[in-house]
Amino acid sequence: MADHIRIRRLGGVWTVRSGGAVLGESTNALELSEGDLPPVVYFPREDIAMAMLDPSETTTTCPHKGTARYFDIVNRSATLKDAVWSYEDPHDPVAAIKDHLAFFTGDLVTVEQI
């Protein structure tokens, strides 16, 4: 793994919400820390309501993690374009995030420990 990337399992129960709906809740969340960037919580795909996510055409590439695929969140109040990403075939050093989803957080999406 690149020296500036760390992945650790988070304790407790973690949740992600958008538009008044709970998109997921997990006791198996991971935290990825990368250099000076804020840590990102990754949720196992099986703990997320995938019916609320629509695949996007967007992809990006990270030299350390691989190619990210994006999803839109569709809830009662809005469609949040490219609000979720996943490394479906991550590079070996970060293989722990395979089959996990991460969320851009802010006013419309929250990730928190409950």
Automatic annotation (TrEMBL):
Pfam families: NTP_transf_9 (PF04248). Residues 15-105 form the DUF427 domain. InterPro entries: DUF427, DUF427_sf. This is DUF427 domain-containing protein. It comes from Sedimentitalea arenosa.
